[in-house]
Amino acid sequence: MQFREKTSAKIAASLEEESLKIFAKINEIANYLSFGNFGKRKKGDGDDFWQFRQLNIGESANKIDWRRSAKTNQIFVKEKEAQNPKRFQFWIDARPPMHWSSSPVLEHKFNCAQVLAIGIYLALRKIGQSPSFIGHLGSPSSIDEILGCANNLGKMPPTANKAGEVILVSDGIEEIDIWRARIANIKSRGGQPLIIIIQDPIEIGFDISGRVLFSSMAQSQEKVQIEDCQSIRKSYLERYNNHFQALQTMASEMEVPIFFHISGADYLPIAKQIWQVFEAKTQRRRLG
Amino acid sequence: MNGLFSQIHFAHLGALAALAAIPLIWLVSKMIPPAPRTMALPTFKFLADLGSVSRNIQAAPICLKILRSLALFCLIAAIATPYYSAENGVKTTAEAVTIVIDDSWANANDWAQIRANSKAIIENHAPINNATTQFRLMTSSQNAQMPISVLSNRDALNFIEQLQPKPYLPDHRALTNRLKKLDQKSHIYYFTDGLSHDASDEFIGELKRITIGKPNLLKPNSPLVTLNNIEATENGFAFEYKSFAKNAREKVHFLSKDGEILGIGQGENGHGSLALPANLVRKTAAASIAGQYNAGAHFMIAASVLPPLIGIEGLGQADEPLVSDNHYIATAANMIGNVVQGDVDNLIAAKPNAIIFGDRNGFSPSEERALLAYMRHGGTIIRFMGAHAVGKQQDLIVCAPLSATPRIMASNFSWNGAKIAPTPPLSPLFGVEINEEARPRIVSVFQNTQSNVEIWARLMDQTPLVSRRAIGLGQIVMIHTSASPVWSDISLYDSQIHILRRILQTSMANGISANTRPPSGEMRPILLLNGFGEIGQISADQKPILPNQLVSAPNADYPPGIYAGNGSVHVLQAANNDLALRRLDYKAQDFDLVSGFAQSQVDLRQTLFFIGFLALAVDCLIAALGLAFFRKSSNKFAGMTTILLCLFAFSPLLVASTPAIAQSTAAPKASGKLSDDDLVLAYIITPDAATNLAAKTGLEGLSAALNASTNIRTTRIIGINPASDEMALYPIIYWLLPANNRPMDAASAAALNRYMRSGGVLFIDTKGSGRERRIALQNTQSATRGLVLPPLEPPPENHVLHRSFYLLAGFPGRFANSNLWVEAQNSTNISANDGVSPIIIGDGDWASAWAGGPHGRAQTAIEGGEMRREVAFRVGINIYLYALTGQYKADQIHVRAILERQGARKARPK
Prior knowledge:
Radius of gyration of chain B: 40 Å
Structural class of chain B: alpha/beta
CATH topology of the largest domain in chain B: Rossmann fold
Number of domains of chain A: 2
Strand content of chain B: 15-25%
Number of strands of chain B: 37
Oligomer: heterodimer
Number of strands of chain A: 9
Number of helices of chain A: 8
Helix content of chain B: 25-40%
Number of domains of chain B: 5
CATH superfamily of the largest domain in chain B: Domain of unknown function DUF4159
CATH architecture of the largest domain in chain B: 3-Layer(aba) Sandwich
Largest interface: A-B, 34 and 24 residues
Order of helices and strands of chain A: HEHEEHEHEHEHEEHEH
Structural class of chain A: alpha/beta
Distance between the termini of chain B: 95 Å
Largest sheet of chain B: 7 strands, antiparallel
Radius of gyration of chain A: 24 Å
């Protein structure tokens, strides 16, 4: 009994350590992103008060705030804070192949996806957006809460029920046709998809040698024995690259931005790229 | 063919059952790669149809299978220990075997054969790996009280391997007494020396009592010849020898001290002679019979039996020869030895044993210098007195200053006083025949008595007649009367010749023969023979011959050789004139005469192992070549693995063929490359870095001092960890204890103990003088916990540490009151390491004193300043020299120089 308590305490401690690491990474991403100009609060058409300013010549008299103007000899206009109508929806792929890493020192692809997605999610919250996870109502604000709901995600199909940005985080191994249908579906509902592909170094480089018995992570549990992995490396890499080439082609055809992240690499560059895409879209809309 | 196979036997027949496994080779003989790793892969779908690459498991070709079967067969067969035996049916007897060997010099000629035969007997009775036969090995030299132990075949072979012939004859009585205690019957093999000794019959009777069947007798093949006597004759040597052969002609080699053959004498019927020039006669040190390799055929010739070379002054044209001293001296000298004549310088140049001067009026200063030098280097001067000599004042070539007026004995009232008194036993002249009538009439007398003058002969009234004083290695002997009848009528009798002869004997090396004059003290061996007649080692515990126990025949306590001391010399010959060679009449006894044994068994193990490993090596080579041929570019390590496999298979061959290489590659880790000439100063690394630095800088300073002052050349300073580093390369290891020393671990303690046991010196510096006494004590105790330390004492005054390089009164270090302890002189294992103490413990913090070197400035405050520091360096040099040279400076040869130095030092005012 005592042993079990000790063991569970140990496991809890190690888990805590793990999650602390994840928290740190997430916070790093969130802080890094929220420092930019994008998403700064500004005047707009919201409900909340923003500021009083003097009436400019030529402005409609309807805008005058009489209560404020009556206190002085000047005429004031009451401005409201802009309320962003933008919606951000996150989806994380949770199929079994996502829960895998090629080496114990590397994080699972699913964890990478979580860190990246939650980091961006928190950054969005910091700038006053209210992003959400597909399949979860509401917009949780604390990391604990987010992790709790993020773990249950991915079981829902990535179908946006509202307009706005839909961020899809996956390993991208599924067939191109599945992806094509997925994106078409989102777009038909007014969503603007963005794909983040998480890759493992072994998948990209296939740096394996010797005799290896490979097993599939699908339900079929298929197996294949390769006598000399180096001898088939070339063919494998050809197929792998072809697949992702096709995925990228499909994405550009459908005007969907696509990003690749290799597990173990720094999150910030990729997060920044994604953030810039959001910024550009906002500016484009403003200009538009 | 059939016969050949029937003579092959196996010691472990059961091991052959493993041959049943050989057919497995045909099934297993494939190149099977290791089991694959398993791995889940998300991108599995890209591998879908790539798994069809064929498995490279190949059946080995038939030649490889045959080769492997051969290797396996050879190895299994080798493990079964096959041997070829010429005899059908080996005598694998569990019965006991007793081998008795007469290990005297009489068997030395055939020693190699005896050894080979005894080994063959042991191997025939106990086949390979069969250790059930009990062996008893007895030699005739063994002590009568020695128990008869039972040996295994291996121990018996070792015993035979180490057995050497003894330089004395067998003691069959002792053997008989030992055999009487033995009741168990056994096969008897007796290696006789062919001689009948005391109690030989009784001994053979005992052999017959315990034998199974007839006792086997093995007699020597070479005929034995002994050289029994050699005498110096007028023109060379005459010799006598003994052998069983009739009309035996033998050659006798006369040898110098260095083994050079000076002449070869031909002998017939036991006698012979050799004509040899006088100068070669005096160089002769030994003789031996050609073709004989035993102590009995080797005869040592003591210098005292050889005619001396006597120098006398050139004969002037004496008008009256019968009253001239030189006439009488020359007559006597010619009767005693060989004479050389000339002036003083020529005489000294001829290096005579002695120079005899008649009455002469002193010497010129240059002659005096030359003569004193001659005596200091071992020469003897004999002077007769006379009117001229007495008249000379300030004469240096005398025992003591002489009175200007001689004593006249031949007055009417002093007849009795002039008579020569009997010589005392301690005098070298003891026993010399002196004619009753021989009386000196006038004798010279000393001005006063001198303590350093020995009186060898006196007149009845105690007036000295012959006096002697040692000068350097030589001596001056004065005969206080004239050589001619002017002062004395001794010269008219042969007494003068006897006296001169005896005095000349003392002038020869080592002294007077103990047979001529009873020795006055113990005589220690200066040369010993072994059983082969070669010059052997003189062991430290060799007993001296005591004056009252003059041995005439060698035995276990007194091997043949030359014993000398206290002015006497005794030559103990292995076969002297009294030795009677009696042949053992074995024909009358009921013996099985065995001529010899051939080694009837051949061990086939090594051959089979060789073939087996060779086959494996070839197999590896073929596999490697095959692999290399089919190798994919990805198989980076396959080639390396194969080479390693090949090396592994070849390794037994490599090890067997080049043991030297194997040894040389086992270089110690810490030392790196060290040549034999390098002295590396080592110190023990402690947990305290400051202490390590102090030890290192201290040793650097000492190293500079050693290089500057001594012949030792040090190369570098090295810190070692006793637990992990090999310490055998360092003659002395310095260990400076840190302030709060922790006890060392067991591995380090064991390594240090091993180091000290195997001849190393551990020098522990506790730095205790500079610390509080209680703390220093605790610190030392904790450091030495786990070390096996002998009893310790401060070095006594005669300890070599006081004089191993510098002469030191004490051992100060940084502090004046420093102490040093070494192994106590009464310790039981003091002689284990050449008498060098395995441990030296001091508290002087020498490292601090040494730091900076002898020419640099002190790096710490030294009590007593630079003077003390210089002494601390001397202490260090003495300690290191002591570790390197051991008891060398304890050798007596240094005593004179050391005493002189000490005397000079004591005389010098402080």
